[in-house]
Amino acid sequence: MMKNYLAHFLLCICIVLGVVFPTGLSAQEIKVFSVQDFDLNGPVKSCLVATDYGKEEYDFNEDGLLTKAVTRYSDTDYDITIYKLDGSELLEKRLENYRDGVFVKNTSIANLYELDTTDGKKITEKIISYNKEFLDQYEYSYGEEGKLSTIKRTNDSGIDETALKYEVYKGELTKTYYLNDIIFKSIRTSKIKGKDNTIHKLILTKEFLEGLPQKAVEQTYDSNNRLVSEKKFIYNDGQKTFIPTESIIYSYNDKGMLTSLKTIKGKSVTVQEFIYQYDSHDSGNWIKQIITPDNTYKTRKIKYYEKEPLQEVKS
């Protein structure tokens, strides 16, 4: 799926920062990553990805959840992120930086999570450096339906609060984010009928700066939840409306893998095609991806958990 194809490009940023909000507020809707977020299927134990800038390594537990991620820029420069889980709940996330083979204590940080259910559900995240310096604290509060309702950030600069509001109108769900009562993002999800007469999902995301509209993106997902088209817009103050700037069309093979990406920007049209080689495991994961016309490629080495042999039942 396209969302998985993009995930490993964004993950290293998400690991450190999460979702970046305006005016310096950084937080994330807490997420535990799984094999599906990396275009992986089946009982994957580890995956090593060779990229242009270095290597990425991912380790998963037997439930398919990410427990460790390593980004290697060279043999001596790398970042390690370790996830400590209790089932599917995140307890700790530790980012450790190494430069010239030496652990860099002052840039390494730990995110510690504490769950409180005495009065609804609340998760407190404390971010501290390995020098024991307090950096940030976030409180995530959830409503009756388990939806995130507020994120409160506390640090030496004061307190900021992000409120999330949910509205349903004519079958469309709109989730709106407010930072200190000022809107900065809205996400509207609706359903439409596609050309193949199946139900598609349409997601329109608008971004605001100091309450004023700035840009938007409209994404369409097919019945298999694959991103099939994307339209980008920028807000025109003179016309008081969003003006389209770019369109992207995604195509997939029968394995659900991205095979072509067509980008239309004004009169310019570019097409990228993706070719895959797969491993011999029953899960059918790709181990080499070739992108044309640039002829760049990625390779993956995947290890799997072995199946436990069936025990004979003695009569």
Structural class: mainly beta
Give the distance, in angstroms, between the N- and C-terminal Cα atoms. Answer: 47 Å
Percent of residues in β-strands? over 45%
Helix content: under 10%
Helix-strand string: HEEEEEEEEEEEEEEEEEEEEEE
Q: What is the 3D shape?
A: globular
Major beta sheet summary: 20 strands, antiparallel, barrel
Low-confidence stretches: 1-27
Summarize this entry quickly.
This protein has 1 helix and 22 strands. With 315 residues, the chain is mostly beta strands.
Helix and strand topology:
Elements lengths: L1 H16 L1 E2 L5 E2 L16 E7 L4 E6 L5 E7 L5 E9 L2 E11 L2 E15 L4 E9 L4 E9 L5 E8 L2 E12 L2 E8 L2 E12 L5 E11 L2 E10 L5 E10 L4 E12 L5 E8 L2 E11 L7 E7 L3 E9 L11
Structure, described:
The chain has a 20-stranded antiparallel beta barrel. With 315 residues, it is mainly β. Mean pLDDT is 89; it is low at 1-27. It has one helix at 2-17; strands spanning 19-20, 26-27, 44-50, 55-60, 66-72, 78-86, 89-99, 102-116, 121-129, 134-142, 148-155, 158-169, 172-179, 182-193, 199-209, 212-221, 227-236, 241-252, 258-265, 268-278, 286-292, 296-304. The protein is built from one helix and 22 strands. The protein is globular.
Comma- or semicolon-separated keywords:
315 residues; mainly beta; 20-stranded antiparallel β-barrel; 1 helix; 5% helix; disordered N terminus
